[in-house]
Amino acid sequence: MSIQRFQAPEPAVLVLEDGSRHPGHAYGARGTTLGEVVFATAMTGYQETITDPSYAGQIVLQTAPHIGNTGMNAEDPESRRIWVSGYVVRDPSRIVSNWRADHSLEDALVRDGIVGISGIDTRAVTRVLRSAGSMRGGVFSGDAATLTEDEQLRIVREAPEMSGQNLSADVSVSGAEVTPAVGDKIGNLAILDLGVKQATVNNLAARGFEVHVLPQSISFVDIQAIDPAAVFYSNGPGDPAASDRHVALLREVLDAGLPFFGICFGNQLFGRALGFDTYKLPFGHRGINQPVLDKTTGRVEITAHNHGFAVDAPIEGVIDSPSGYGRVEVSHVGLNDNVVEGLRALDLPAFSVQYHPEAAAGPHDANYLFDRFRDLVIATQESKKNA
């Protein structure tokens, strides 16, 4: 008869730049990881969350206490790898109990070298971040867990802040990737990959676009080379104020009269192209339960968010674009804090939203925006034919 011996969990600690320490258990890979500590409120869809490139540079804390019970599978990832810098959970599942699972969440974290921590009071940390704002932090496990408290805090405080970081090159594809249109083809769509999710590509292809996912380093000449019917700017990580080149590229797109749709980071860059400033939110919007008002229809949508910056523009009335692109209005407003959640140009075929209409994971209230984009492109094509 064999006796199964209990293996004590290895120690780990989450250290925040304010000096607070949250000891727990090593989870995932062992070592040190640094990043901006943020919380995500989704109770499901953790696989889509951690494979969202928008989370690059961030240590993601899940507010839902029990994570990992459905494991990981080969069908649901939103990109080619896990992008979170670190992962914080309270109670990781000890077993995987879903028929689609190929392996466990912890196995995936180990495979991609993601240092995590479990067994801490995630609610307490969330309350700190809601009060003080997102801050730099570090997870220390393995040999790093034995460093002195002063040394760990020094390492955290020497880490770069998210403000001022341009992370697009870290997450973008290195070469063009093409997804064929489903059904009747409308035209070629140029996606500037700033951290695009696969569900976004799938939704656009389903609307009749031949989707060309292009590296973030491309020029307007490269966009013109695919004979685009429209241009799309994706979600992504980093500070929009640090992406001047992408703003300049977008202005060339607008000057050419090409239809444009941007989401999340793409919304922030659209705002900058129109001449508005952006600013950092205290703790951002991250989760799949954020209420947004569509001012065009008066409908309230429950939406999926993942962003720490926002556009600074008046939420009421029609505004003249400071950069000379005609009339602009804020089309969507966040109902939790009145943050700009969408922009619409009235004299150009261009609009954007701050959230993720593909909603993987999340509710599909905002999926109509892909139809709105398709209709805009078709109307622009008809207008050019009749001109």
Automatic annotation (TrEMBL):
<dbReference type="InterPro" id="IPR017926">
    <property type="entry name" value="GATASE"/>
</dbReference>
<dbReference type="GO" id="GO:0004359">
    <property type="term" value="F:glutaminase activity"/>
</dbReference>
<feature type="binding site">
    <location>
        <position position="236"/>
    </location>
    <ligand>
        <name>L-glutamine</name>
    </ligand>
</feature>
<feature type="binding site">
    <location>
        <position position="238"/>
    </location>
    <ligand>
        <name>L-glutamine</name>
    </ligand>
</feature>
<keyword id="KW-0028">Amino-acid biosynthesis</keyword>
<dbReference type="GO" id="GO:0006541">
    <property type="term" value="P:glutamine metabolic process"/>
</dbReference>
<keyword id="KW-0436">Ligase</keyword>
<feature type="active site">
    <location>
        <position position="358"/>
    </location>
</feature>
<dbReference type="InterPro" id="IPR036480">
    <property type="entry name" value="CarbP_synth_ssu_N_sf"/>
</dbReference>
<keyword id="KW-0055">Arginine biosynthesis</keyword>
<dbReference type="Pfam" id="PF00117">
    <property type="entry name" value="GATase"/>
</dbReference>
<keyword id="KW-0547">Nucleotide-binding</keyword>
<comment type="similarity">
    <text>Belongs to the CarA family.</text>
</comment>
<feature type="binding site">
    <location>
        <position position="268"/>
    </location>
    <ligand>
        <name>L-glutamine</name>
    </ligand>
</feature>
<comment type="function">
    <text>Small subunit of the glutamine-dependent carbamoyl phosphate synthetase (CPSase). CPSase catalyzes the formation of carbamoyl phosphate from the ammonia moiety of glutamine, carbonate, and phosphate donated by ATP, constituting the first step of 2 biosynthetic pathways, one leading to arginine and/or urea and the other to pyrimidine nucleotides. The small subunit (glutamine amidotransferase) binds and cleaves glutamine to supply the large subunit with the substrate ammonia.</text>
</comment>
<dbReference type="InterPro" id="IPR006274">
    <property type="entry name" value="CarbamoylP_synth_ssu"/>
</dbReference>
<keyword id="KW-0665">Pyrimidine biosynthesis</keyword>
<feature type="region of interest" description="CPSase">
    <location>
        <begin position="1"/>
        <end position="188"/>
    </location>
</feature>
<feature type="binding site">
    <location>
        <position position="306"/>
    </location>
    <ligand>
        <name>L-glutamine</name>
    </ligand>
</feature>
<dbReference type="InterPro" id="IPR035686">
    <property type="entry name" value="CPSase_GATase1"/>
</dbReference>
<comment type="pathway">
    <text>Pyrimidine metabolism; UMP biosynthesis via de novo pathway; (S)-dihydroorotate from bicarbonate: step 1/3.</text>
</comment>
<dbReference type="InterPro" id="IPR002474">
    <property type="entry name" value="CarbamoylP_synth_ssu_N"/>
</dbReference>
<comment type="pathway">
    <text>Amino-acid biosynthesis; L-arginine biosynthesis; carbamoyl phosphate from bicarbonate: step 1/1.</text>
</comment>
<dbReference type="InterPro" id="IPR050472">
    <property type="entry name" value="Anth_synth/Amidotransfase"/>
</dbReference>
<dbReference type="GO" id="GO:0006207">
    <property type="term" value="P:'de novo' pyrimidine nucleobase biosynthetic process"/>
</dbReference>
<feature type="binding site">
    <location>
        <position position="54"/>
    </location>
    <ligand>
        <name>L-glutamine</name>
    </ligand>
</feature>
<feature type="binding site">
    <location>
        <position position="309"/>
    </location>
    <ligand>
        <name>L-glutamine</name>
    </ligand>
</feature>
<keyword id="KW-0067">ATP-binding</keyword>
<feature type="domain" description="Carbamoyl-phosphate synthase small subunit N-terminal">
    <location>
        <begin position="10"/>
        <end position="140"/>
    </location>
</feature>
<dbReference type="Pfam" id="PF00988">
    <property type="entry name" value="CPSase_sm_chain"/>
</dbReference>
<keyword id="KW-0315">Glutamine amidotransferase</keyword>
<protein>
    <recommendedName>
        <fullName>Carbamoyl phosphate synthase small chain</fullName>
        <ecNumber>6.3.5.5</ecNumber>
    </recommendedName>
</protein>
<feature type="binding site">
    <location>
        <position position="308"/>
    </location>
    <ligand>
        <name>L-glutamine</name>
    </ligand>
</feature>
<dbReference type="InterPro" id="IPR029062">
    <property type="entry name" value="Class_I_gatase-like"/>
</dbReference>
<dbReference type="GO" id="GO:0005524">
    <property type="term" value="F:ATP binding"/>
</dbReference>
<feature type="active site" description="Nucleophile">
    <location>
        <position position="264"/>
    </location>
</feature>
<comment type="subunit">
    <text>Composed of two chains; the small (or glutamine) chain promotes the hydrolysis of glutamine to ammonia, which is used by the large (or ammonia) chain to synthesize carbamoyl phosphate. Tetramer of heterodimers (alpha,beta)4.</text>
</comment>
<dbReference type="GO" id="GO:0044205">
    <property type="term" value="P:'de novo' UMP biosynthetic process"/>
</dbReference>
<feature type="binding site">
    <location>
        <position position="265"/>
    </location>
    <ligand>
        <name>L-glutamine</name>
    </ligand>
</feature>
<feature type="active site">
    <location>
        <position position="356"/>
    </location>
</feature>
<dbReference type="GO" id="GO:0006526">
    <property type="term" value="P:L-arginine biosynthetic process"/>
</dbReference>
<dbReference type="GO" id="GO:0004088">
    <property type="term" value="F:carbamoyl-phosphate synthase (glutamine-hydrolyzing) activity"/>
</dbReference>
